[in-house]
Amino acid sequence: MKKVLVAYFSASGRTKNAAVQLAKAADADLFEIQPLTPYTAEDLDWMNKKSRSTLEMNDPSSRPEIRTRLENMADYDVVFLGFPIWWYTAPTIIKTFLESYDFSKKQIVLFATSGGSGLGKTESALKPCAPKAVWKGGKLINDAAESSLKMWIESLNL
After folding, report:
1. How far is Cα 43 from Cα 4, in angstroms, rounded to an integer?
2. pLDDT confidence of residue 12
3. Quick one: which H or E segment has residue 112?
4. Helix (H, G, I), strand (E, B) or coil at 73
5. How confident is the model at residue 145, as a pLDDT?
6. Kind of pairing, strands 4-8 and 107-113?
7. Average of pLDDT values for 86-94?
8. pTM of the complete model beyond 0.85
9. Do the Cβ atoms of 132 and 103 come closer than 8 Å?
């Protein structure tokens, strides 16, 4: 039996809700990726070219620090990795998370929440951060019911 983790970053709570539903459907452990410095509403103002999130997303080298480390990452075989879509991709803290652990031979399945855009090229943007992982694609799960999540999980052949 494979050990499964749902790791997620949520700025507004929407991705957290999706992660909780997914963890229940997958019978998985749950880990919240929290920034060392929490985001304020001003930080998340994508209309402001000088807001923290805008500056991070415009800087390819940006790696926001994470508050806590998951000490037993080696125990997991499958990691569902969730986040809101920012500027058509994952927030840069997701790269911090991926670069913080050894994902060799682990399966990574992306999931995201979004107000309008899809995953786009998110997987190809994240792969260099965990090149030895087995990437299984991803899905938007804004308001997915447990039954549809279970069907999706089964379709992944994990």
Report:
1. 32
2. 87
3. strand 107-113
4. helix
5. 85
6. unpaired
7. 94
8. yes
9. yes
* Class of domain 4-155 as given by CATH: alpha beta
Q: Are 38 and 64 in contact (CB under 8 A)?
A: no
Question: How does pLDDT run across 58-75, given as a tens digit for each residue?
Answer: 999 999 999 999 999 999
The 10s digit of each residue's pLDDT in 94-153 is: 999 999 999 999 999 999 999 888 888 999 999 999 999 999 989 999 877 888 999 999
Q: Which H or E element spans position 120?
A: none
Which value, to the nearest 10 degrees, does the dihedral of the CA atoms of residues 41, 43, 37, 80 take? Answer: 80
Q: Which residues contact 44 (CB under 8 A, 6 or more apart)?
A: 11, 12, 51, 52, 53
Whether the CB-CB separation of 80 and 7 falls below 8 Å is answered with yes
Using an 8 Å Cβ cutoff, are 8 and 82 in contact?
A: yes
CB 19 within 8 A of CB 6: yes
Please identify which residue in the block is written with the tokens 């992982």: 133
Domain ranges of the chain: 4-155
